[in-house]
């Protein structure tokens, strides 16, 4: 039954452990920010932080594996060297590309987390909007919903941006501690 399942000879255990470490750092920070800024309870904010971080990590790895065949050979070699051996060369071209890639990854992750959080809130909080509709009169319901939706949308974007920035900053500090410059 398990004959088809085999562990590959070369297994990127280091990058998997780093990804788990980064998730363990990012999830509590983002859950705390969601709890404080959006007034979610601790259980809900932790659930949302876990979901958006796991989904964004999985989508990020999927995109990484999809674009890897189209990279130039020098970049592919650096990517494979980093994934399997946790090493980057010190050439200026590669380090400059890493800075650009990290900036793009930050904003892409921010947008992905924002969309995922909006989707989760929309799909899991639908029963709350149904109870609000029955409690408010029709005119008040329309005006309050539009003004509250604008405030919530702005607050949600800013909260996700702050949470993502803080988690990326903590991960960057962790990387400086793990890989000290000689």
Automatic annotation (TrEMBL):
InterPro entries: FraC (IPR054663). Signal peptide: none annotated. The keyword Transmembrane helix applies. It comes from the Bacteria. Keywords: Membrane, Transmembrane, Transmembrane helix. The chain crosses the membrane at residues 12-34, 46-68, 94-116, 151-179. NCBIfam families: filament_FraC. This is Filament integrity protein fraC. It comes from Mastigocoleus testarum BC008. The lineage of its organism: Bacteria, Bacillati, Cyanobacteriota, Cyanophyceae, Nostocales.
